[in-house]
């Protein structure tokens, strides 16, 4: 997984490609992805890679591929009012999107 789905120019194009590939299937997950710009979770000098469907690591900073996060969020069947605990939350990108849904 990752890499083949998207090399978007911006966050919306990344999400459009994830939807087209059916990684993002629900409106709740789509809205969370669109509300949070993935580039905001990158170091400034690496933001040119933010909209690729690839994992990224620099030292202790790590982001999984967007397709992985979308699969996780869809599989959890997230709904307002539920709880979520993300151990080893890294940059907080996934936790922020999940928090918007909950």
UniProtKB/TrEMBL annotation:
It comes from the Eukaryota. Pfam families: PCMT (PF01135). InterPro entries: PCMT (IPR000682), SAM-dependent_MTases_sf (IPR029063). Belongs to the methyltransferase superfamily. L-isoaspartyl/D-aspartyl protein methyltransferase family. This is Protein-L-isoaspartate (D-aspartate) O-methyltransferase domain containing 2. It comes from Cirrhinus mrigala. The lineage of its organism: Eukaryota, Metazoa, Chordata, Craniata, Vertebrata.
